[in-house]
Every structure is written in C-alpha cells, then in structure tokens.
Amino acid sequence: MVVTATLSPPLPAVERPWAPKLRDTPMLWEIARAVGGGPFHVIHPATFAENLGSLLDALAAEHTPGTVYYGKKANKAAAWLRECTRPGAGVDVASVPELVHALGNGVRGEAIGVTGAAKSDGLLWLALRHHCLLAVDAADELERVSSLARDLGETAEVLLRVRPPTAPASRFGFAPDVLTAAVRRCADPGTAVALRGFSFHLDGYDPIPRAELAAHLIALCRDARALGHPASKISIGGGIAVSYVDSEDWRRFEADRHDGWFHGGRNPVRTYPYHQEPTGAAMVTAILRHDVGGAPLSHRLRDAGIELLLEPGRALVDGAGFSAFPVLGRKASGDHLVTTVAGLSMSLSEQWKGSEFLPDPILVPADRAPADDTPVRTAVVGSSCLEYDVLTWRAVQLPRCPGVGDLIVYPNTAGYQMDKNESGFHQLPLPPKVVVDRDRWHVDTDYPIQEIR
Ligand SMILES: *Cc1c(COP(=O)(O)O)cnc(C)c1O
Fold first, then answer.
1. Which of 189, 229, 236, 288 would bridge with 298, disulfide CB 3.0–4.6 Å?
2. Ordered DSSP codes for 186-253
3. Contact status, residue 43 vs residue 79, Cβ threshold 8 Å
C-alpha cells in the first residue's frame, strides 16, 4: 500500500487582530529594513495590558482581592514591565538582573515577588533592601534570609513555598514535616521574618489541583495565625493555560498525527497542549469557583481574609508578539522543500526540548502581488551549521513557494518561544525586539529612555 497521507492538516494560529493587521501594512517592511532585514521579533504591550486587565477583572468579578505578578522569565522585554506598574500588578523575578530590570522600569519593590530556589545572598540582599516579597524555598534559605534581614535592620516579607503533595519528588518547596518546623522557626524571637503566607507552583494547566492546593494553603495560614504570624496571602504560582489553535484543528491534528508529516520522520513525542480549556481569565474564574469542601474557593479566601497572588508568565504575553525570519533559500527534499531562513531555532525555544512549536508559520511575500501561487510543503531550517537547527520539522503548507527576501512569521511567540534560548551562536547578534504601539514603533530598550506616557 502506498502511504499518501503525508499532508498534515493545517494548524492556523489564533491571533489577536493587531498582528495580521500589522503584517498587511508597509510598517512591517519599514521595521525589517530598519533592523537590517531580520530576524526580528515584534511585541505589542497593549495586548499584554489587555491580558493583565482580564485577569484582574476575573479576580474582581469573584470579589477576590489579589495581585497578578508577571512571571518575567516568559519574555525578557522591558516593555511589559511598564505595564506592571499599574495597581494590582507586579513582577515575579528569580535573579538579580531580573530584579534590577523590574526596579529600573519603575516597578516598586513591594510589587515584586522573588521566587526561584536557592537564591544568592546578593539577590536576597537587594530584595530585602527593596522590601520585595520573598518565596522561601528551604530551611537553610530561611536562615540566610533571617540573618541578612537582621544585619540590614529590616524585616523580611516571606512566603514559604510548599512542595505539592502531588509532586513529592519535586526539588522545589518545603516537604510537610520541614514546613511545620519552618513555620515554628519564623515565630522564634530574633528571626527578622514576617511570615505573610504560603506559595506553590504546579506543573500542568488544570484549575482543579490549583484550587485544592489553595484551600490547603488557606488552612496553613489559619494555623500560622494561631502562632501569631500575619499570614494573609497565598500564591498559586503560574501555569495559567493558553490556546494557540482552535479546538477542531487541534483535535484533527492529534487524531491523525503521522511521522510522514515531518521532515526526517521526526514526529515530536511531547508537545505543549496547543488547544486547551479553560484558558486565561476563564481559568482563573474556574479556580475561584471550584468547590473546596462545600464552598467556592473565592468564598473560602474571603472568609479567611486572604489575598490571592498569581504569577502567570505565558498567559500575560499570549497574543502579544510574533517572530519574523527572512527567507535565504530553499531546496527539494523528497516530497517537500526545505526552506532556510536567516536566524536560528534558538529563537523558537520549543525546538530545544525535542518538541516543536506547532502553530503554522505564515509566509509574508516581499512582492505584494506574487505571480506564482502554487502551494508548496516545506520544513523550515535555521542558518547555522547544525543539522538539528530546525524551526519546523513538520512539512507545512505555504500558499506559494517562499522567495528570497520574503518573511516567514511565527505567530504568538512571546511566551517562552522568542528569547528563552537565544544565544550568540555563530557570533550572530540576538534578534531585536520591536515594540509596536498603534502606528508607531521603536526597538525595546532596557530602561525607560523613551518618552513616558
Ligand atoms: C515559571 C514560573 C512561573 C510562570 O509560569 P507560566 O507557566 O509562564 O505561567 C510562575 N511562578 C514560578 C515559581 C515559576 O517557576
């Protein structure tokens, strides 16, 4: 039998209107020329602001006091940080450069959460100076926090990070017995620590385990209060889900998934769930409405007088960026083409965990009235000397043969894809990030040297 089913069904990205609109204007080419052709990333802080607003609205709709901290590791741009200076927002950092970046962009220390395991003394010192909220991960770290705070004449604002009972082998957080000891330790006279509450961060994107563990953290706060601690905050971490494609497209893709769709038969074993529900603000609502012991979580929080902290990364930058790579050339490879672009697969981090960023790339022709419009199927590879520097292993269909100078655009890359793994490989410069604000644009700058509006 001849296998002919090698044509993968399309996986068009769900995009916000600004992105296709921009790709249809001369501004995209003006940007490309100004940054030397590309590759480059385009980011859209207005979409970040919209996402942030909808998460804050979801908290308000359930009458839940809360703060949304942007999980900064999802994308390094400065432009997001200025959106985090509004009431109810903050930034979640895990290193000195991340903390400095947030402070330098106007985020006050009280609105910064410091997570990450085994924080250096330098990070703790700076965080204490700026009265950041520290998620303490281990007993020895608690001792360092306490002694540094004492030396500084400060009181450390602390959450204790709980190891999820569903992940007993996790390297993060306190196991139950050590947690009890740590809570008691915070009450010892001479520890310069204010225990403000507890935190966790879960793998996966399911609202239910988050609601259930949140209920457990409320109980921990009550116990801590009985020991005299001012415990009134719980953080449920990040992992707010995002959908990149429609449910029907994803269902069909998953149902028929086939090695023959991929260059070299390289069908990734595991991928992000590119469609899932609920996502974004709806997932926050689902967490808050989940019944925990006879009442919705939001009621439990309110009854206990506890503030809910969130640390979403990916969900805040959903729809807020894309990545553009200029076509350098193409060649035939069996039943499909291989198209080479300027740039590296390091700018699509999913490729670096043996996985693939699956939403369809989009061909933006340099010639707006192309003569030939015969569809082709192609893999997309980077311009390095590595066999495995591949942006798309799947032979994706493009409406016509990509020509030198066309752009191949990867949609919705702001969350982890665009800059998590970028390096100066081959001594190539990192692709610039271009901030688009209605009909204006500028290259993202580390600190607010642009006009402030
Ligand atoms: C990575 C991380 C986040 C952000 O996760 P997302 O999946 O991007 O929402 C938040 N909190 C902690 C502690 C993290 O490690």
1. 288
2. HTSTT--EEEEEEE---SS--HHHHHHHHHHHHHHHHHHHHTT----EEE--S------B-HHHHHHH
3. yes
More confident residue, 447 or 234: 234
Strand partners, 231: none
Comparison of pLDDT for 183 and 8, the residue scoring more: 183
Residue 2 has pLDDT above 50, yes or no: no
Q: pLDDT tens digits, residue range 155-193?
A: 999 999 999 998 999 999 999 999 999 999 999 988 999
CB 296 within 8 A of CB 289: yes
Question: Could you tell me the domains of the chain?
Answer: 18-44+321-443 (2.40.37.10), 45-241+276-310 (3.20.20.10)
Q: Compute φ and ψ for 70, nearest 5 degrees.
A: -70, 120
The H or E element containing residue 336 is strand 336-341
What local confidence, expressed as pLDDT, does residue 372 receive?
74
Instruction: Inform me whether the pLDDT recorded for 367 exceeds 90.
Output: no
From the CB of residue 107, how many other CB atoms can be counted at a distance below 10 Å?
26
Find out whether the beta carbon of 238 lies less than 6 Å from any atom of ligand 1.
yes
pLDDT above 60 for 257: yes
pLDDT at 4 over 70: no
Nearest residue (CA) to ligand 1, atom 10: 238
The answer, yes or no, to whether any atom of ligand 1 lies below 6 A from the CB of 201, is yes
| Neighbour-count burial of 121, counting CB atoms closer than 10 A to its CB (0-12 exposed, 13-18 middle, 19+ buried) | exposed
CB of 164 shorter than 6 A to ligand 1? no
The conformation of residue 351, written as its DSSP 8-state character, comes to: G
- Can you tell me the distance from the alpha carbon of 331 to that of 401, in angstroms, rounded to the nearest whole number? 11
Residue 113 in contact with ligand 1 by CB distance below 6 A: no
DSSP-based helix, strand, coil % in the chain, nearest 5: 35, 20, 45
